[in-house]
Design goal:
The protein has 549 residues and is an alpha/beta fold. It contains 13 helices and 20 strands. It has helices at residues 33-38, 40-45, 81-93, 112-117, 189-205, 225-243, 256-262, 278-282, 295-300, 314-327, 352-362, 432-436, 442-455; strands at residues 14-17, 50-53, 57-58, 70-74, 97-102, 144-145, 155-156, 209-212, 248-251, 266-268, 334-335, 370-372, 464-469, 477-483, 486-493, 499-503, 508-515, 518-523, 526-531, 535-542. The structure holds alpha-D-glucopyranose and calcium ion (CA).
């Protein structure tokens, strides 16, 4: 779909902030919006163009705020609506953008719509959710909860029992299931409009768009669901583009092809599978990292490409990227993530150099990458965190940002025992202050990569990607990026084993950023590459020898 890309988004890099864990301004042990404002100069210093803020709306926090109780109100623990307005203003003042997290697929069980719908009375909200009429035996394979509230029926859920699915209808309603409304059913209109009003409310406040939670969960059904999702999302996105042409929508969908047709500006390549594109990101995580999750995922996940004992597979990863790029004409409507609040952090089982190798690759591939807070300093995954506000194993990736040395890490003035979530107990834990002035730190390495990406659009969102070396397992990955006559090659070897090879490519290389040891030499119109274990390099390719000094 030929959509206009807002100029600011063209080569954008984002930073994900998990508000409860970034910076606590008032000493209650929970991060807040005023705390984020305090740290905006730092965020700006990373070179990012935008921030994605996880949900900051009123909620009982049974799923860390992905269970919204009031869409129009900032959760008091984070501040008031005016604080959000102020945050948006301060972000804009620094030339950055702010995406909020829109959770349109479900509400909290404490949302007044659900409280009304689950009551004994007939209310205007009864069809906002998917309720069976009394007890039924056949639930058509969908997840339902029974025995909650006064209404005699089961309600469908999207995630936890506390997240009842909002009702956007079914693409393939079956007559024997009266609870399966067609997506065109007029009874569904009011809810659709409510969600539009939520978007309008925050766009009018000044936010620059949304990351859309479980974007493809809205319409239910097995056949014809993509078409129904397109109809729904095209309506929202066209409305948004008409009224707020600079705003964007990023799907949490894991299907960039569908997201593109829905009118999203980008979609995350998610590691949780279910689509042919999921492998792309699975390649960035090691199978063992799924241990705290389930054995099922462990069994399904191929080994990560980014591992020292690399049996990982960069070929499938590149196949999929190329397929995506061919699909959207090279506009790269996808976002590769360094991690997020649902994933195990990169730092698990990787040392700093190994992370640098992964970041050198992630930040020189097409699309609009998202950096997860703390990944730029190598924060650890903490398996001992346990379940905080519905995190379960995900809590390990949600610990407080480490600003300084010392027992509170500069996160909060509260006693660390009162932090809402555990801080990394290791007093040698990485922190911003320590890395700030060290030119070799992970923090400054990340900054260099982001600024390189901005200085040379060939390395960014829309530069052409050409694969030079990528094999099924145990091999470095080498690719060329090119745009408007500027050429770069990137060589990445996460494995411990050193490698040497030759590629058919002319030019004189100039090294811009690197980790470990990579040498690229021109010889007889070819390039000779010698790459040590755990190494990566980004080189500019000059056509004539004189250009390099
Ligand atoms: C998304 C969120 C996740 C949440 C779930 C349910 O996957 O990223 O944190 O638990 O949706 O809203
Ligand atoms: Ca606070």
């Amino acid at each position: 779909m030929a959509k206009k890309i807002p100029e600011w988004f063209r080569n954008a890099v984002f930073y994900e902030i998990y508000p409860q864990s970034f910076r606590d301004s008032n000493g209650d042990g929970i991060g807040d919006l005023a705390g984020i404002v305090e740290k905006l100069d730092y965020v700006k210093s990373l070179g990012v163009d935008g921030i994605w803020l996880n949900p900051c709306f009123d909620s009982p926090f049974q799923d860390a705020g992905y269970d919204v109780r009031d869409y129009f109100k900032v959760a008091p623990r984070y501040g008031a609506n005016d604080d959000l307005k102020r945050l948006i203003g301060e972000v804009h003042k620094r030339g950055m953008r702010l995406l909020l997290d829109l959770v349109p697929g479900h509400t909290s069980i404490e949302h007044p719509w659900f409280k009304a719908a689950v009551s004994r009375d007939k209310t205007p909200y009864d069809d906002y959710y998917v309720f069976t009429d009394g007890k039924v035996r056949d639930l058509d394979g969908y997840p339902f909860i029974t025995g909650y509230g006064e209404r005699d029926g089961f309600y469908m859920i999207n995630y936890f029992y506390s997240q009842p699915a909002l009702n956007y209808g079914f693409s393939d309603p079956k007559p024997e299931h009266s609870w399966q409304f067609a997506t065109s059913d007029p009874r569904l209109k009011p809810l659709r409009e409510e969600i539009r009003q939520v978007m309008k409310f925050y766009l009018d406040m000044g936010c620059d768009g949304f990351r859309v939670d479980l974007a493809f969960s809205l319409v239910k059904g097995r056949s014809g669901r993509d078409e129904a999702l397109k109809e729904l999302w095209q309506d929202y996105s066209a409305w948004m583009k008409t009224n707020y042409p600079d705003a964007i929508l990023v799907a949490e969908g894991g299907r960039p092809d569908l997201a593109d047709e829905c009118g999203f500006d980008s979609d995350f390549l998610m590691p949780w599978g279910g689509t042919k594109y999921a492998l792309a990101n699975k390649a960035t995580f090691r199978a063992e990292e799924y241990e705290p999750h389930t054995d099922r995922l462990k069994a399904e996940s191929p080994r990560s490409f980014f591992s020292r004992d690399s049996s990982g597979n960069s070929r499938d990863f590149m196949d999929e990227l190329e397929e995506l790029l061919a699909y959207d004409g090279g506009t790269a409507r996808f976002s590769i993530i360094t991690g997020n609040h649902d994933e195990v952090r990169l730092r698990r089982q990787r040392n700093v150099d190994e992370i640098k190798v992964a970041l050198a690759c992630i930040f020189t591939l097409p699309g609009r990458p998202f950096l997860y807070y703390g990944d730029e300093i190598g924060m650890k995954y903490l398996p001992q965190v346990g379940n905080i506000e519905g995190s379960y194993w995900r809590g390990g990736s949600r610990s407080p940002m480490q600003w300084e040395k010392g027992e509170k890490a500069g996160f909060s003035a509260a006693d660390p025992a009162k932090f809402y979530i555990m801080l990394d107990p290791d007093l040698e834990r990485p922190c911003v202050a320590e890395q700030e002035n060290d030119p070799d730190s992970l923090l400054n390495f990340t900054r260099n990569l982001i600024s390189l990406r901005h200085d040379h659009p060939a390395l960014g969102a829309e530069g052409k990607l050409r694969r030079l070396v990528s094999e099924h397992a145990d091999s470095p990955l080498v690719y060329e990026r090119e745009l408007d006559g500027e050429r770069f090659i990137v060589a990445v070897n996460p494995a411990a084993k050193a490698r040497k090879f030759e590629i058919q490519l002319a030019g004189t290389p100039e090294k811009l950023v690197g980790v470990g040891d990579v040498v690229v030499e021109p010889r007889d119109g070819k390039l000779r590459i010698a790459i040590s274990g755990v190494s990566a390099g980004v080189f500019r390719l000059h056509d004539r020898e004189e250009e390099t000094l």
